[in-house]
From TrEMBL:
Its EC number is 2.7.11.1. This is non-specific serine/threonine protein kinase. PANTHER family: SERINE/THREONINE PROTEIN KINASE (PTHR24363), SERINE_THREONINE KINASE LIKE DOMAIN CONTAINING 1 (PTHR24363:SF0). Pfam families: Pkinase (PF00069). Keywords: ATP-binding, Kinase, Nucleotide-binding, Serine/threonine-protein kinase, Transferase. It comes from Paenibacillus aceris.
């Protein structure tokens, strides 16, 4: 498709550029302009930076780009006898997931790379991954049935690239899986061997081989659905450095950036109450956390927390900051209550379109090791589906009353949760309220998976008194202990053992919580 030359700048002595000559072909000028305009919009330190572009009278186009000095991944792979440590391959995959996420969430139109392979990946002098050659990349257009041209590299390209179907982000994820298979199998191609990766390399972790198997599904619906989902799955194999939580008396370790999505099977079931309860239990356990209210929800959290009285004076709503004209990613003041950070939506609601990319921007803005994300009943919203694909845990609150779990909407949600479980996601059901003994068996049989635990029945009068005083009823020591005991089976599932308290009784919140040191 093109020739690439190393050129020396005649004005800036010693400066070198990569000059890509795109040969004139049918409709070649349009393809050249599309690639030039696409590269001009990209601003990422690990993507090629376009300096200039021009055409000749004969119709040949030239792109002038940064010269990246370093080997390709294919060069390194060949020079090591095609034997890379799988930990090194996962580190490369982490960087590629970040790059693909940037491209796939690019606005106004996602960019599909379509040619991910070892020879298109370079390493700079700092060992950073750099993607090169956007010659077959395209902007994703919603509603389009197929690509204009079927292009890609055999062995790495997704099936839909050669079938006249439209490619999307999942096509790049297939290529990522094919490349991981190639690197982890000593240079073999999945489409030729037709063998599971675990048979070729039995020493690989099961979580790694299952992720590759998921990425290589022929049907895009059965693959991982986002680059962040892939990264979250791989993180369980090669976790990022642990954060150390320090207080006056102890030090414990927690995983970095743990995302827990929580919602209700139907409206009014108590997902927000459950989310607040979990946040305050972690606060009492000296574990920093945050509770985010999904911007597409009906506003609830701000009022429950008496925001007019309790929110900091300079507080700005994070959802509005992210989608504002200036695209600010740092709120001026966070709303902290002990070790919990509240991230509510504005009491008037959020009226702009909330995109999946906005959720990830908000996630990166919150510097807490554990983040609860309350989605209410909006399980079918695209941004919530994207979060669930990337979540470490999914918690579903259900009602113990008969009939509600058999509604058509409830059954549709159960099907969605089962699809997440089939992808390896951990889904936990929590009942709101106890089930009478004589009906417990019948009710258990009416739900696909028995609840792991049940919220205790608290006196409504006590809850209402706390609400009118602008207090968290969960911060009352006797209530906190009761909720903690009831939710302990769930806590054992979603928290590392090292962070669980040795005794069953919860201590009343000490006054020095507000002065606790930030985790390192």
């Amino acid at each position: 498709m093109s020739h690439v030359y190393l050129a020396e700048d005649l004005k800036l002595k010693g400066k070198k550029w990569a000059v890509k000559e795109i040969l004139p072909v049918e409709e070649g000028t349009m393809s050249f302009m599309e690639e030039a305009e696409m590269l001009a919009k990209l601003h990422h330190p690990q993507l090629p930076q376009l300096v200039d572009y021009f055409t000749t009278d004969e119709g040949t186009g030239f792109l002038v780009m940064d010269y990246i000095q370093g080997p390709t991944l294919q060069d390194l792979f060949d020079n090591t006898g095609r034997d890379f440590p799988f930990t090194k391959i996962i580190e490369i995959a982490f960087q590629l997931c970040d790059l693909l996420h940037y491209l796939h969430t690019f606005l106004p139109c996602p960019i599909i790379y379509r040619d991910l392979k070892p020879s298109n990946i370079m390493f700079n002098e700092q060992s950073q991954v750099r993607l090169i050659d956007f010659g077959v990349a395209r902007q994703f257009k919603y509603g389009k049935q197929g690509d204009t041209m079927q292009m890609g590299t055999i062995g790495f390209a997704a099936p839909e690239q050669f079938m006249g179907l439209q490619t999307d982000a999942r096509s790049d994820l297939y290529s990522l899986g094919a490349m991981l298979y190639y690197l982890l199998s000593g240079g073999q191609f999945a489409y030729l061997t037709q063998q599971p990766l675990e048979q070729i390399n039995p020493k690989l972790p099961e979580a790694l081989t299952s992720t590759v198997r998921l990425l290589l599904q022929e049907n895009p619906q059965h693959r991982c659905q986002s680059a962040m989902e892939v990264k979250m799955r791989l993180r369980s194999i090669n976790p990022e450095p642990m954060n150390v939580i320090i207080n006056h008396n102890q030090a414990s370790q927690l995983p970095n950036d743990r995302l827990i999505v929580i919602g209700g099977l139907f409206a009014g079931v108590g997902s927000t109450f459950t989310a607040i309860s979990l946040a305050r239990i972690l606060n009492a356990m000296h574990i920093p956390n945050a509770l985010v209210e999904q911007p597409t929800n009906e506003p609830d959290l701000y009022m429950l927390l008496y925001g007019d009285m309790k929110a900091p004076k300079e507080y700005k709503f994070a959802a509005h900051l992210i989608t504002a004209q200036e695209r600010s990613l740092t709120p001026s003041v966070s709303w902290d209550n002990g070790l919990t950070t509240w991230v509510p939506i504005h009491p008037d609601g959020y009226h702009s379109a909330w995109q999946p990319a906005d959720s990830f921007k908000l996630l990166h803005m919150i510097k807490k090791p554990i983040i609860f994300w309350d989605v209410s009943t909006h399980w079918d919203h695209p941004s919530v589906e994207e979060l669930c694909h990337s979540a470490d845990e999914i918690i579903v609150v259900i009602d113990a009353s008969p009939g509600k779990c058999n509604r058509p909407s409830s059954r549709a949600h159960f099907d969605r949760f089962n699809s997440y479980k089939q992808r390896g996601k951990r889904v936990h059901y929590v009942a709101n309220g106890c089930i009478p003994g004589m009906f417990e068996k019948e009710w258990m049989e009416s739900v696909p998976t028995p609840p792991i635990c049940a919220l205790p029945e608290l006196p409504r009068a006590g809850i209402m008194r706390a609400v009118w005083k602008g207090e968290c009823v969960q911060d009352h020591p006797e209530v906190l202990e009761q909720i903690n005991n009831a939710l302990s089976p769930l806590l054992k599932e979603i928290l590392p053992r090292s962070s669980m308290p040795s005794g069953k009784k919860m201590k009343e919140k000490p006054s020095f919580f507000s002065r606790i040191m930030k985790h390192s």
